[in-house]
Amino acid sequence: EAQVTQNPRYLITVTGKKLTVTCSQNMNHEYMSWYRQDPGLGLRQIYYSMNVEVTDKGDVPEGYKVSRKEKRNFPLILESPSPNQTSLYFCASSLSGLNEKLFFGSGTQLSVL
Amino acid sequence: AQSVTQLGSHVSVSEGALVLLRCNYSSSVPPYLFWYVQYPNQGLQLLLKYTSAATLVKGINGFEAEFKKSETSFHLTKPSAHMSDAAEYFCAVSDLSLQGAQKLVFGQGTRLTINP
C-alpha cells in the first residue's frame, strides 16, 4: 500500500530534550516536506526537500533540522524543543513537486512541557 | 507572496443540503489551487486541484470547485451533504519564494459539521 509513515503518533517530552520524528514514504517520491498545524493558522511549511541533494527552509524553520540522506526518509529533528513547538506535525510527499498531489502522513501530536 | 483566505472557520449544514465552503486567494497570475480534506485523526487528502485546464474542477466524493479569476475565488461545493462529509477542509495555493523555493500556502481551514 502506497503510504507516508510517521512515527511516533503521539509524543510528550520536556524542554531541551532532543527528539526525532521519523517520516518514510514507499512511493519513490522525490519531493518531501514537513508542516506544522496549529489552530486558526492552518498548515505552515517547516522544511522541504526537492530530492536527496536539495533541502531548504519553509516558512517556520527556526528550531528544526531535517536530513535527506536517502530518498525514502525525511526525519524532523528538534535539537532543543521548547513549549512553542507543541503542535501537530505532518510529513508529506509527492512525485516531483508541489503542483502534484501531496500524500500526507497521519500526523504526530507533539507536546513539549 | 501568495495568500489564501477561507471565509468561516466553522460551517454547519443539514444532511442533504448544499455545502459551500469559500476560498479567496491573492495572485496576479493563474495559480495552482487545491482543496484538501482532513478527517478526524488523519492526515490531509487531496479533494481536487485546479491547473487552468478547466474552470470547473470535479473532485472526489461529489465535491467540485469553480475557479473565478475576476473574483480571485475557488469555492468548494457539494449539492447534497452527507454525514461522512464532516471534516476540516483546507484551501491551498502553490507559490514560489524569492529564492525559488516551492511553497504550498494553506488557508486557516473550515470545519464542516453535518446536522442529521
Largest beta-sheet characterization of chain A: 7 strands, mixed
Low-confidence stretches of chain A: none
Mean pLDDT of chain A comes to 93
**Total number of β-strand segments of chain B?**
11
Concise account of the structure shown:
The complex is a heterodimer of chains A (113) and B (116). Chain A is mostly beta strands and 113 residues long.
What do you see in this structure?
The complex is a heterodimer of chains A (113) and B (116). The relative contact order of chain A is 0.33. Chain A is mainly beta and 113 residues long. In chain A, a hairpin with a 3-residue loop joins strand 4 (31-38) and strand 5. Chain A is built from no helices and eleven strands. Chain A has strands spanning 4-7, 10-13, 19-25, 31-38, 42-51, 54-57, 65-66, 76-78, 87-94, 103-104, 108-112. In chain A, strands 2, 4, 5, 6, 9, 10 and 11 form a seven-stranded mixed beta sheet that branches. A four-stranded antiparallel beta sheet of chain A has the order 1-3-8-7, with no helix packed on it. Chain A is 0% helix and 50% strand. Chain A starts with a strand and ends with a strand. Chain B is mainly β and 116 residues long. In chain B, 0% of the residues lie in helices and 57% in strands.
Observed structural traits:
heterodimer; A: 113 residues; 0% helix; B: 116 residues; mainly beta; 6-stranded mixed sheet; 11 strands
Question: What is the topological layout?
Answer:
The complex is a heterodimer of chains A (113) and B (116).
Chain A: E1 4-7, E2 10-13, E3 19-25, E4 31-38, E5 42-51, E6 54-57, E7 65-66, E8 76-78, E9 87-94, E10 103-104, E11 108-112
Parallel strand pairs in A: 2-11
Antiparallel strand pairs in A: 1-3, 3-8, 4-5, 4-9, 5-6, 7-8, 9-10, 9-11
Chain B: E1 3-7, E2 10-14, E3 19-26, E4 33-38, E5 44-50, E6 56-58, E7 64-68, E8 73-78, E9 87-96, E10 102-106, E11 110-115
